[in-house]
Design goal:
heterodimer, A: alpha/beta, Rossmann fold, 6-stranded parallel sheet, 4-stranded mixed sheet, globular, B: 2 domains, 4-stranded parallel sheet, 13 helices, L-lactate dehydrogenase complex protein LldE (chain B), oxidoreductase activity (chain B), Cys_rich_dom (chain B), iron-sulfur (chain A)
C-alpha cells in the first residue's frame, strides 16, 4: 500500500523517496517510454523463444544450469579460496571488498598507484552498484563507458534501465538528438550506422589513450583462475587488453567450480538474454601479459565484492537469489517491468530479480515495497535459466517485511530491517480474516451478511476506492454457493 | 487416488492424463470468490461434474484456500485457514476446483506452507488430490459435450496460475473446440497477466489498470463479444474494467458457459 493512508504504511522512511506505486504513474503516463519498452521486450521475448524451440532440451539445459550454480553456492567459501589461489598463481592480484565503499577505495588506490588519469570501462552492473564512475570523478579520474548503451546513458547523465541493454528506454530519435548535442561535429542523423560510427570514432581514441580498463565478469572459474567475460561489441576485449592495467570487479556469487561448468551457462545466458546462440565475443582472461607476449595488460586485478551477498547466502531459501547469471530474461518477460521500465524501480537491478535482490542488499526499510510490485504471475520463473523461484522468494520477502517485532527482536533477522512494512492495521485485518475463515459457522454468518448488505459498501470506501477507479464494483450475490449447493441437493459429506 | 509419497521439495505433478479409473465421487472446493460473487459459476462446475455421472460433495466447512494471506506475507494466517480446509475435506477423494489460482495454491504451495508442521504429510496428501476443473473434465473424466447453442465467437483468457502452476494449457480450449457452434479466436497477448494479482490491483492500482486496459484491448481486437476464463479473479478484473469503460465484452466463467450451451439450465 502506498504511503498515503495505506494499510501497510509500515516503517517506510521518507528519506528513501517515493515508493514504487507513486513513481509508476510517471512512466505509465509517458506513451513514448511505454512504446519503447513494449516494442523492445516483445522483440526480446520472440528472439528468446526462437532459441528454445524444444521444451525438453530447454528443461534439461536449465536443469544443468541451475545445478552448476547451486553446486557452486553450496561450496562458495571453498571455491572463492580456490579462485583466489589460482588467480594469484596466474598473476592476477585478488582483492576482497565487504562493502561498495571498500571496493571503490580499492579500485581508486590501484589506479592512483599506477598514476592513471583516464579509464575505459566495459559494461559492469557491479560497478553501477558501486557508483564507481562518480567516485573516480570525485578523485579526478575520468571513466568513459565503452559499451554503446552505457556510453549513451553516460552522455545523457542517466542510469541503466535494463541490466543487459542499459539504454533500452531510449529510441533512435532520442539517441540522435543526444548525439547531435553532445558529440562535436555530428549533425542530427536518423541513420543507425552513422550514429554507431560516431560513437565508435569517439571511443577508439579513448581505448587507445586510456591508462586503465575496468570490466565486469560473467563467470569466475575457480579450477583454472579464469575470468569469463561475454559481450557483442568487442569493447570488452579492448577494455581488458589495450590499456596497460585491467581491473575486473565482480560479486562473489559469480564463481563457478570448473571450466566445464561454464558450458551450460554459456549456452543459457546469451540465448536467454538477447536470443543469440552465443555472443560475438567470449573473453577468457587468465592473467596479465607474460614475458615475450606482445599484448595484454601488464597488471590484472580482481575485486570481489560482497555488499550484502554473504548475508543472502546465510538463508537456505533466499540463497537461490545468488544463482542469478544476470541474463535479464525475467525483466524481458515481466508484465510490470514492460509497462513501467527500469527507472521506476529506483534501484540498480530492476525487474523481478531486482525485486528480490534489492530488498536483500539494501534492507526492507529502503526497499520493502519492491516485492509487492508483482502480480506473482510466474512469467519470470518460467523463463529463468537457473530456475530461481522468484515468485516464492517475493512471497518470502513480503513475509519478512511484515514479521512481528517480537520475532525480529528475538531472532536474528534474516533480512535487514525485517518487519519494516508491518502495520497494526494490516495485521489486525489478517487476524480478523483468519478468525472468520477458520470457523465455518462464523464464515457462513459473515458471507450471508455480505450477500445481504455487501453491495451497500460505497465505491469510495478504503481499498474499494482504488479498485473502482478503473473497474466496476464487484457484486455480491443474494445467495452464496454454500446456499445454492444445498438447495440443489449436493451432499455435505461423503455418503456412508 | 492415493496419498503422495513425494518429498515436499519435489514440485507437485502437473495436470496430465491420469491412469486412475474414473472416480464416481468427488469433492468440490468452491473458492471464496465464487462463493460470494460468482456462485452461479461454482454451481455450473458442480452441474457439469454431475452430468458426467459423478456424485459431487460440497462440504459445508470449506472457506478459502488461504492465498490472499500468503501473498500478503501473513503465512501463519494462511496456514491456519489452509488447515481448516484440510479438516473440511477428509478421506482421499479428488478435490475439484473451479479456479486455477486457488488450485495452484493448494497443489503447489500447501506442502511448502506446512514445512516443519506436524500436518505437513496431510498437506502433501491433500495437494495431490487437487484438480483444476477443466483439466479434470478433460483428462480424468474425458467428457464429451453436445453444443445446443446458437453460433458465436469467444476468446479465452488463461489465468497465470492455471498456466504456470497447474500446467493447464490446452484443456479448456479442448472443451470449447467440442462445441460445434462456437468459434474460438485467440487474443494476441493470451499468456500475459491481466493485472489482477489479488491485493496488487489496489496496492499498485496504476500499474494494474494499465495491464487490464491492455488485456481488454487485445480481447476487443479479436472481435469476439465474449471472454471466457477459468478464474473469477481475472474475470472480476477484466469484466469490471470492461463495465467501467463501457465496453460491451461479456466476461464469463467457462463452467457457466459450457452448462448454458450444453445443458441449458
Amino acid at each position: 500500500m502506498h504511503a498515503k493512508g495505506g494499510v501497510a504504511d509500515g516503517g517506510h522512511h521518507p528519506e528513501h523517496g517515493p515508493r514504487f506505486a507513486e513513481r509508476a504513474p510517471d512512466a505509465l503516463n509517458n506513451p513514448q517510454l511505454r512504446r519503447n519498452f513494449r516494442r523492445a521486450m516483445d522483440g526480446l521475448m520472440a528472439k528468446r523463444a526462437a532459441q528454445f524451440p524444444d521444451p525438453a532440451y530447454w528443461a534439461e539445459l536449465r536443469e544443468r544450469g541451475a545445478a552448476v550454480k547451486a553446486r557452486a553456492l553450496s561450496k562458495l567459501p571453498e571455491l572463492l579460496e580456490r579462485l583466489e589461489s589460482n588467480l594469484t598463481a596466474n598473476g592476477v592480484q585478488v582483492h576482497w571488498a565487504e562493502t561498495t565503499d571498500e571496493a571503490n577505495a580499492i579500485v581508486l588506490d590501484i589506479l592512483q598507484r599506477a598514476g592513471a588519469r583516464t579509464v575505459i570501462k566495459g559494461k559492469s552492473m557491479v560497478s553501477e552498484e558501486m557508483h564507481l564512475n562518480a567516485h573516480l570523478e570525485r578523485h579526478g579520474i575520468e571513466a568513459v563507458e565503452s559499451d554503446l548503451g552505457e556510453y549513451i546513458i553516460q552522455l545523457a547523465g542517466e542510469t541503466p534501465s535494463h541490466i543487459v541493454m542499459p539504454c533500452i528506454h531510449k529510441n533512435k530519435d532520442e539517441i540522435s538528438d543526444l548525439f547531435a548535442e553532445k558529440i562535436p561535429g555530428l549533425g542530427r542523423t536518423g541513420d543507425v550506422d552513422e550514429l554507431t560510427a560516431a560513437a565508435r570514432r569517439v571511443l577508439r581514441d579513448r581505448f587507445a589513450s586510456a591508462d586503465a580498463g575496468i570490466s565486469g565478469v560473467n563467470f569466475a572459474v575457480a579450477e583454472t583462475g579464469t575470468l569469463v567475460l561475454i559481450e557483442n561489441e568487442g569493447n570488452g576485449r579492448l577494455s581488458t587488453t589495450l590499456p596497460p592495467l585491467h581491473i575486473a570487479v565482480t560479486g562473489i556469487e559469480k564463481v563457478v567450480e570448473t571450466l566445464d561448468d561454464v558450458v551450460p551457462l554459456l549456452a543459457l545466458l546469451p540465448r536467454s538474454a538477447t536470443g543469440q546462440p552465443i555472443t560475438t565475443y567470449v573473453n577468457m582472461i587468465s592473467g596479465p601479459r607474460k614475458p615475450g607476449e606482445k599484448d595484454g595488460p601488464t597488471a590484472v586485478h580482481l575485486v570481489l565484492l560482497d555488499a550484502g551477498r554473504s548475508r543472502v547466502y546465510q538463508d537456505v531459501e533466499l540463497a537461490d537469489t545468488l544463482r542469478c547469471i544476470r541474463c535479464a530474461a525475467c525483466m524481458n518477460h515481466c508484465p510490470v517491468y514492460t509497462r513501467v521500465g527500469g527507472h521506476t524501480y529506483n534501484a540498480i537491478y530492476p525487474g523481478p530479480i531486482g525485486k528480490i535482490l534489492t530488498p536483500q542488499l539494501q534492507g526492507l526499510d529502503a526497499a520493502g515495497d519492491q516485492p509487492h510490485a508483482s502480480t506473482l504471475c510466474n512469467a519470470c520463473a518460467e523463463v529463468c535459466p537457473v530456475k530461481i523461484p522468484i515468485p516464492d522468494l517475493l512471497v518470502r520477502l513480503r513475509r519478512e517485511a511484515v514479521r512481528p517485532t517480537e520475532e525480529t527482536a528475538t531472532h536474528l533477522p534474516v533480512v535487514k530491517d525485517g518487519g519494516a512494512e508491518r502495520s497494526r492495521m494490516e495485521s489486525l485485518v489478517w487476524a480478523g480474516w483468519r478468525l472468520v475463515y477458520t470457523r465455518p459457522l462464523l464464515y457462513r454468518m459473515v458471507t450471508r451478511a455480505l450477500a445481504w448488505g455487501g453491495n451497500w459498501v460505497p465505491a469510495s470506501a478504503p481499498l474499494m476506492r482504488d479498485w473502482t477507479r478503473a473497474r466496476a464494483k464487484p457484486r455480491f450475490k443474494p445467495r452464496t454457493l454454500h446456499d445454492l449447493a444445498r438447495e440443489r441437493g449436493y451432499l455435505n459429506e461423503v455418503p456412508k | 487416488m492415493t496419498a503422495a509419497t513425494s518429498s515436499p521439495a519435489t514440485p507437485a505433478p502437473k495436470s496430465a492424463p491420469k491412469p486412475d479409473p474414473k472416480p464416481d465421487r468427488v469433492y468440490f472446493f468452491g473458492t471464496c470468490l465464487v462463493d460470494m460473487l460468482y456462485p452461479e459459476a461454482g454451481l455450473a462446475g458442480m452441474d457439469l461434474l454431475r452430468h458426467a455421472g459423478v456424485t459431487v460433495i460440497f462440504p459445508e466447512g470449506q472457506s478459502c484456500c488461504g492465498q490472499p494471506a500468503r501473498n500478503s506475507g501473513y503465512l501463519e494466517e494462511a496456514k491456519a485457514v489452509a488447515r481448516a480446509q484440510l479438516d473440511a475435506f477428509p478421506g482421499d477423494l479428488p478435490i475439484v476446483v473451479p479456479s486455477g489460482s486457488c488450485a495452484g495454491m493448494m497443489k503447489t504451495h500447501y506442502p511448502h506452507l506446512f514445512e516443519g508442521d506436524p500436518d505437513q504429510p496431510r498437506a502433501i496428501a491433500f495437494a495431490a488430490r487437487i484438480h483444476e476443473l477443466t483439466a479434470f473434465l478433460v483428462n480424468v473424466l474425458g467428457v464429451t459435450l453436445q453444443d445446443k447453442g446458437e453460433p458465436m465467437t469467444v476468446t479465452w483468457h488463461p489465468s497465470c496460475h492455471s498456466l504456470r502452476e497447474m500446467g493447464v494449457t490446452d484443456e479448456p480450449k479442448a472443451l470449447l473446440r467440442q462445441l460445434a457452434n462456437v468459434t474460438l479466436v485467440e487474443n494476441s497477448r493470451e499468456r500475459e497477466c491481466c493485472g489482477f494479482g489479488g491485493t496488487f490491483a489496489v496496492r499498485q492500482a496504476a500499474v494494474s489498470t494499465a495491464m487490464v486496459a491492455d488485456k481488454l484491448a487485445s480481447v476487443r481486437d479479436t472481435g469476439a463479444g465474449t471472454l471466457l476464463s477459468g478464474d473469477c479473479g481475472c474475470l472480476m478484473n477484466i469484466g469490471g474494467h470492461a463495465e467501467k469503460v463501457g465496453d460491451g465484452t461479456r466476461c464469463r466463467h467457462i463452467a457457466e458457459f459450457l452448462m448454458e450451451r450444453c445443458h441449458a439450465r
